[in-house]
Amino acid sequence: MTERGLLLRVTLLVATASVPLPAPRSLVAQDTTAGKRVYVKWCAGCHGDAGAGDGPAASHMLPRPRDFTGAIYKIRTTASGQLPTDQDVLRSIDEGLPGTAMPAWKERLSERERRDVLAYLKTFSAFFQDTSQHIVPLTFSKEPGGATSVEALRVGRQFYDSIGCWKCHGKAGRGDGPSAPTLKTDPGEPIFAADLHQSWRFRGGASAADIYRRLRTGLDGTPMPSFSDLIDQKFLTDEQLWRVAQYVRSLSPERAPEVRDVIHAPRLLGGLPRSPDDSAWARVERYWFPLVGQVIRKPRWFAPAVAGVWVQAVHTRDSLALRLEWDDRSQSPDTAWLEFERRVLDHLVSDDSVAARAELQPDEIAVEFPRSIPAGMERPYFLMGTATDPVYQWRWTSAPRQAAAGLARGVGRFDALGAGSAPGAEARFADGQWRLVFTRALATADTANELQFEAGRAIPVAFFAWDGSNGEHDTRMAVSAWYFLALDQPTPPRVYLSPVVAMAVTLGLGMLVAVRAQRRAGAGGPEGYIARGLPRRHDA
Amino acid sequence: MRKLGSIAAVAGAVLVVALAAWTRQPAADPQGAATVTGKVKFTGAKPVNPSIDMSEEPKCKAKYTTTPTKEIVVVNPNGTLANVFVYVKAGLPASAKYETPKTGVLIDQDGCHYRPHVLGIMVGQPLEIKNSDGILHNIKAKGVKNRPFNISQPTTMTSTRTFSAPEVMVPLECNVHGWMQAYLGVLPHPFYAVTGADGSFTIKGLPPGTYTIEAWHEKYGTQTATVTVAGTESKTQDFTFAAK
User: Is the ipTM of this complex over 0.85?
Assistant: First the structure.
């Protein structure tokens, strides 16, 4: 093939790829027998042999795996109550459902396997055999421009309020609305209203177009309704519904936060920002650390409520401040969430000897460090150390609102250090979010137990979070891996001075060479000028 | 010529038969004149319905002078039970077809309550879902034989939906107000009733036959009785639910 031909083909390929193709009416050559083989191997563990969403792993999960027998699907392009198109179900198989245990299968199964398994899972429900069911995708309009303009966001916010999104998703969109604690799926499992500040965890995709589709179709089987009737009844226009989607999109970062290994703590010349509201934080880089359920020590926890924590760090000549921000739908303990907590604990199989009881518990967060900065790569066991190799930890609880420092010797054993050792801690709760600043002197007297912070070193750090209203306590928690904290060293003055000196020296030497050359040529004139110029070099 | 004539005669006869069959089809075919009537009695201690905290919804709260409660068990002053769905479960000819009424059945969201709490509807008959409150409700139908749906109504408005399969009962609920629940009986025929303030029910227009009548209550489950009626006969069949 000629280069031009190849180029043409590539261009065509790219062009066709970017045009959304109409959903194929029927997928050719679907093989339910082959589909069953794929299903049994890869899907049945969660979704169950008969597709009822009751595989061996299901009772550890919230949200639960899909029950295919009812043919109720969250992510569709069809009206609420209608069956999904093949393309809709394939999309969930291909991309997975972010924020749940359902992974993307695009890279793991061949296209043929994915189509076969789709054909097989449709056999679990009689609805797919019912020819009176018309599967018609809704007509979606094109996204209106100006998504991020002030006016678009104002209109979006206006309708976010007037169509009642805030009732479940909260005034600031963190899933903390007044109805949030009462929400259940059709089978009665507790379900969180989505935290709209974490679009990368949206089940059906993060784009404004994805959000718009969810508003049109609703998420069947969940409390999220369809808003299509409102357009039909002229309560709002299609464009205004788009603005709601764009507003919701604007609440999250443009891209899913990248997880970086090292938190850089710049050195501040001013005072240490001890308050979470201090304006100094606005100029400090934020780092996102995802948290996952603690599934190593029993009782394990597969349904953590805190998805991650945003961390910022600064230091001064003698002190360190660490700001943690994490979304939490409730300021625990909160009686409004007690029923929710009961439902969570009822729906999750506990491997505790005594079933966990729903009770009013505080929210908690912990930051851990080794007791001393390791010389090599060796670090203590990330899950709160061991009996022989404990870790140095800061723990904060919402009730009573206090912080402590201590040594953790494995999960479940925390030996607080003396009263004077507690780090400073100032916390605020607002609109479904905790913001907390820990502060401590870089150097302390108890060098055996308390980490001595040093600039220019890689200091291991890890995070743990508990949402009391989600039944989280002790081992039922969200954990991170080890990351690093680096206190940036103040830049020594010679860093700025050296280039200037070097340039001056180079210039001077250059001129010396030039003068000598000119002297040899016998020109006396410029000598005086050069002679006057030289002392300037010494000034520098 | 004679052959042509006989063909015409046969064709004509076929046409007449077909026409007759066609004209008869949409009529409410096995409609009769018999009636089954009765009362649903309640024995035992009257349970207390949980009260509802409507402080989040001042507009709804303002519609009540006393603290509103759920309507799980509504015992009438005469000792009968309201909100019992009574219907013909079996006994109608398998081939019987009943015309779908064009007029809809109304369910209203009023004072953050569904009114009525229990209702019946025919397959294909429009359910008119009204929001009189003018605050955000969503209405979710959680059918198993019918496709479930969930629509948002943030303002005073009416949405219409239909149901395609017989199902006793389809639960309806609002997720904004977790206490709001209603039950909808979907049937392929018009022989159903819901007990009201006097606990009585009447099912009219039954053709002669032997029927299984079922009484459904959201807390106390179902009871059935077999009733045989002839011609214009009216039979009484009472049911009794006991406190649990």
Answer: no
